[in-house]
Amino acid sequence: MRRIVVTGATGTVGGAAMRLLAAAGGGAEVLGAARSDRAAEALRAQGHRSVRLDYDAPQTLRPALEGADAVFLVTGYSVDMLVHSKRLLDAARAAGVRHVVHLGALAADDTPHAHFAWHQLVERAIEAMGFGWTHLRPNFFMDTVWSGFRHRPDRLVHFVGDRRVSWIAADDIAAVAAAALSDPAAHAGRVYPLASEVLAFDEVAAVLERVTGRPVSYRPRPAADLLPLLLKQGMEPNYAGGLAEGVAAIERGDLPLVDAAYDTVEAVTGRAATTWEAFARSRLHELPAG
Ligand SMILES: NC(=O)c1ccc[n+]([C@@H]2O[C@H](COP(=O)([O-])OP(=O)(O)OC[C@H]3O[C@@H](n4cnc5c(N)ncnc54)[C@H](OP(=O)(O)O)[C@@H]3O)[C@@H](O)[C@H]2O)c1
After folding, report:
1. 21 - beta bridge partners?
2. What residue spans define the domains of the chain?
3. Contact (CB, 8 A) for 211 and 286
4. Cβ distance 108 to 43 under 8 Å?
5. Is 11 in the pocket of ligand 1 (CB under 6 A)?
6. How far apart are the first and last CA of the chain?
7. Mind listing the pLDDT tens digit for each residue in 140-155?
C-alpha cells in the first residue's frame, strides 16, 4: 500500500489535505505529522492516523518517513522554514521517499523578498536532491483573512492600500496537493501557481457584506505599520521583516504577479476554483450571531 506523509497536518493547508486525502480513499495510507501528543490526539479525533514528527527534534524525522512514498512538505511562518525543510528533505532521502510536494508561495523567480526567496531555495534543493517533485505556489490565502474577519465581522484591515491581489482557498491548494500526492507520476516536474480570483480588499469587503447581510468596511493601514504589529503578535523577526517588505512592495505597486490569476485548480481537479463568495457562504456558520 502506498504511504503518504502530510506535514503541517494540524495547520490550514495540511489539515485540508488530510481531509481530502481521507475522503478520497484511494487505497493509500495517509499519516498526518504531529509534533505533540495534543496534535496526535487532535488528528485522531478527526479520524486520521498520525505519526510523530517534530522539525525541531531531527531524530523524529527519519522514523516518521520510513516507508513513505510521497511527502507533503509544509512549513510555518518563520525563518526556521529553511532548516526545517533541509532536515525533512535529508530524512526523506535517507528513508527512500520518492516524491515531494512542496507548499511554497507565488513570486517572480528573481524576487528579492525573503520569504519568497527562501521558498525558492527549498524548491531548488528538492530538485537537486533527486526527488520527483511538484511545487505549489499559492498567493493570498482567503482563509488567513477569514480567520481575522470571523472574530470581527464588520471590518477588514490590511496594509496593501487599494491594490488588487489574487486569492486562493486552502481547500483548493489542498485539492491540488492531494492530486499530486495521490498520483505523483501525473504531476512530476510541475510548478503549480495557485491564485484564482483577483480582488482588492474593498471588493472583498463588498462580497462579505453581500454574503453576511451586515455592513463590512475595509480599513487600509499604511504598510509601514505592519512590521511592529507582526512583532507584537510574536512573529519571528526575520520572517516578519521579509513579509513586511513584501507587503510594502505591493502597496507601492512593485510586486510582480501579485494580481496574477491562473486556471490551475480547474486544470488539475476538473472543478472550478472557489470564489470569495462561495468561500464566505460555506463558512457563514462560523460567525458570531448578530
Ligand atoms: N497565508 C498566506 O496567505 C500564504 C500565502 C502563500 C504562501 N503561504 C505559505 O503557507 C505556509 C503555511 O501554511 P499554513 O497557513 O497551512 O500553516 P499553518 O496553518 O500556520 O500551519 C503550520 C503547520 O506547521 C506545523 N509546525 C510548525 N512547527 C513545527 C515543527 N517544529 N515540527 C513539526 N511541525 C511544525 C504546525 O504544527 P502545530 O499545529 O503543532 O503548531 C502546523 O501544522 C508557509 O510556508 C507560507 O509561506 C501562505
Report:
1. none
2. 3-141+167-195+260-273
3. no
4. no
5. yes
6. 49
7. 999 999 999 999 999 9
For residue 152, the model assigns a pLDDT of 96
CATH number of 3-141+167-195+260-273: 3.40.50.720
Could you tell me the three cell numbers for 262?
491562473
Residue with cell 535517507: 94
Q: Single out the residue of 106, 80, 105, 176 nearest to residue 134, CA to CA.
A: 176
Q: How many residues does the chain have?
A: 290
Residue-wise pLDDT tens digits, 157-204: 999 999 999 999 999 999 999 999 999 999 999 999 999 999 999 999
CA distances from 207 to 102, 200, 236, 246 (A): 31, 11, 33, 25
Atom of ligand 1 nearest to the CA of 106: 6
Provide the grid cell at 154: 464588520
| Residue 25 pLDDT | 82
Ligand 1 pocket residue status of 55, Cβ below 6 Å: yes
Nearest protein CA to atom 39 of ligand 1, as residue: 10
| C-alpha 290 – ligand 1 centre gap (Å) | 32
Which distant-in-sequence residues (6+ apart) come within 8 Å of 25 by Cβ? none
Residue nearest to atom 40 of ligand 1 (CA): 35
Minimal-distance CA residue to ligand 1 atom 7: 105
Q: Which amino acid would we find at residue 135? A: H
For ligand 1, whether the C-beta of 43 sits within 6 Å is: no
Parallel, antiparallel, or unpaired for β 99-103 and 70-73?
A: parallel
For residue 137, give every residue at least 6 positions away whose Cβ sits within 8 Å of its Cβ, in sequence order, or none: 104, 105, 106, 107, 119, 191, 192, 193, 194
Rounded to the nearest angstrom, the distance between the alpha carbon of 75 and the centre of ligand 1 is: 5
Residue the block writes with cell 472583498: 204
Using DSSP's 3-state secondary structure scheme, residue 139 falls into: coil
Low-confidence ranges of the chain (pLDDT < 50): none
